[in-house]
Structure formats: C-alpha cells, structure tokens
C-alpha cells in the first residue's frame, strides 16, 4: 500500500484541514517541522515517508480566489516527489495548465465537477496516467455540483464512474479529514469488495499504524495521510514496516 502525504495549500501556507470546513483551517503545527512553508513541509514529508507522490489540494483554487501555480512549480522542481493536484479542474484547458505547472497527475474532484460531460472531456484530453478522480463524500453522500453525482451513495457513484471507464479513484471522506477518528471502514470495505478492479485510495481519518495495516490487508492501494504524520501518530518506522511486509 502506497502512503501519500497531503499538502493542503491556502494563502501560500500548508494548513491543517479539518472536515472540509475551510474557514477553520490554520497553518499546520507539526512535530516534523516548525515551518508551514510548502517546500519545507514537502521535503520533510518526503524524508519521513519515502513517498513517491504527494497529494496537493490548492484550496485557493477550489474556493475560486487565486491559485498556487508558482508554488506548484517550485515543488515540482525541488521537492523530489510527483504532485497529484486538486485545483478545481473544470475543463481541458485548466487540466493542461496544471500539468504545465508541474502536476504529474490532475485530480478531478466530484465536489467541483459541473457535469459528466465535463468529466469525459477532461478524461479524453489527458493520458490515463495523468488523471485521478476524487470521490468527495460527506455525511449525506457524494458532494458534487454535478446533478448526476449529487448526493448519490458512494457505491452507486463508483458504479457510475466505473461505467465511464475510470479505473483509479480516491475515496475522500471529507467529514473525517483531520479528525484522527479513523477511516470510514464500512464505505471502504464495501467499495473494495464490490469493485475489486478499481485502484482505490483512501482519504480521511487515517490515524495510526493499525489503520494502515487494516487498509493494506483490505487491499486498498494507497492512503492519504496528513494529521497523523504531523502529530507523530504514524512514524517513518511504521511506514517502513508496511513496506517490508509486501
């Protein structure tokens, strides 16, 4: 199972995401580094986790006021990791611009996706390995501006996405982000069992080595982790043990 550290960017700093409530986000306070400067945080996460990729959420772009393209270019050049970037991609030109800014993969998030027609256009404009879909889930179901996806239950949404030809999905349970309350095991177990052909990445609530082991044993392909790394609940040694068990 791949460990993918998370960088939530807001107003030029790395912030601590909590349950998708962006008004509450503040610069991170980390046991790994005293800094919230994106490059410094990315470099220490790379050193601690040995990761090959980092998930980056450009919260300014997602909220519709600015972007972090300059910072993305710096991270792409100097952090030593591939960048998986969610920056509210809503059309092929914005996907292309993000790739040019240094993203290795553009993330199409259900939260900001206007329609399935848009998803198809973006999918057809990039290489398969350059795109990843994030199924953003709240307590009432899928979060989306797309009428077809809006408030679907996760399994129904995964079935739709699978029929659209997508094979790699992040299951992002936003109500658990930053809480260290544990992943939504019911959703993840059902998703893995029902769609064994999908590459499934879990995001939201991963809090401990035990959670990582359970995800790995379940056959989840990767986990997005932030809070547990910064608080020291998951360490480099824990991640090494998971890798050595492969």
CATH C-level class is Alpha Beta
Number of strands: 11
Number of helices: 10
Low-confidence stretches: none
Question: So what's the oligomer here?
Answer: single chain
Overall tally of structural domains: 1
What is the correct CATH architecture?
Answer: Alpha-Beta Barrel
Could you give a short account of the major beta sheet?
8 strands, parallel, barrel
Question: Order of strands across the biggest sheet?
Answer: 1-4-5-6-7-9-10-11
Task: Quote the CATH topology.
Answer: TIM Barrel
Shape: globular
Helix content: 25-40%
Element-level helix/strand string: EEEHEHHEHEHEEHEHEHEHH
Q: What class would the helix/strand composition place it in? A: alpha/beta
Q: What is the radius of gyration?
A: 17 Å
CATH homologous superfamily name? Aldolase class I
Percent strand equals: 15-25%
How is this structure best summarized?
This protein has 246 residues and is an alpha/beta fold. 36% of the residues lie in helices and 23% in strands.
Explain how this protein is built.
The structure is a single chain. This protein has a single domain, classed as TIM Barrel (Alpha-Beta Barrel). The protein has helices at 38-49, 59-62, 69-78, 92-100, 116-125, 154-163, 185-194, 209-218, 227-230, 236-244, and strands at residues 2-10, 13-16, 26-27, 53-58, 82-86, 105-109, 131-138, 141-142, 168-173, 199-203, 222-225. 45% of the residues are buried. It has 246 residues and is an alpha/beta fold. The termini are close together. It is 36% helix and 23% strand. It is globular.
């Amino acid at each position: 199972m791949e460990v993918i550290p998370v960088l939530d960017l807001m107003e030029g700093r790395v912030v601590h995401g909590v349950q998708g409530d962006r008004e509450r986000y503040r610069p991170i306070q980390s046991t790994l580094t005293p800094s919230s400067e994106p490059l410094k945080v990315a470099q220490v996460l790379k050193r601690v986790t040995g990761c090959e990729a980092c998930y980056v959420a450009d919260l300014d772009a997602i909220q519709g006021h600015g972007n972090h393209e300059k910072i993305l270019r710096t991270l792409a050049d100097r952090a030593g990791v591939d960048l998986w970037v969610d920056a509210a991609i809503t059309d092929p030109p914005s996907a292309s611009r993000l790739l040019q800014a240094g993203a290795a993969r553009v993330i199409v998030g259900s939260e900001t996706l206007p329609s399935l027609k848009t998803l198809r256009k973006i999918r057809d404009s990039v290489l398969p390995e350059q795109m990843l879909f994030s199924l953003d889930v709240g307590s009432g179901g899928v979060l989306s501006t797309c009428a077809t996806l809006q408030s679907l239950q996760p399994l129904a949404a995964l079935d739709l996405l699978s029929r659209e030809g997508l094979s790699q999905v992040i299951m992002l349970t936003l109500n658990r982000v930053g809480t260290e309350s544990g992943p939504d095991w019911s959703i993840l177990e059902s998703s893995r069992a029902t769609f064994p052909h999908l590459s499934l990445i879990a995001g939201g609530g991963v809090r401990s080595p035990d959670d990582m082991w359970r995800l790995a044993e379940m056959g989840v392909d990767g986990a997005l982790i932030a809070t547990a790394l910064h608080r020291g609940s998951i360490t480099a040694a824990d991640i090494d043990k998971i890798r050595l068990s492969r």
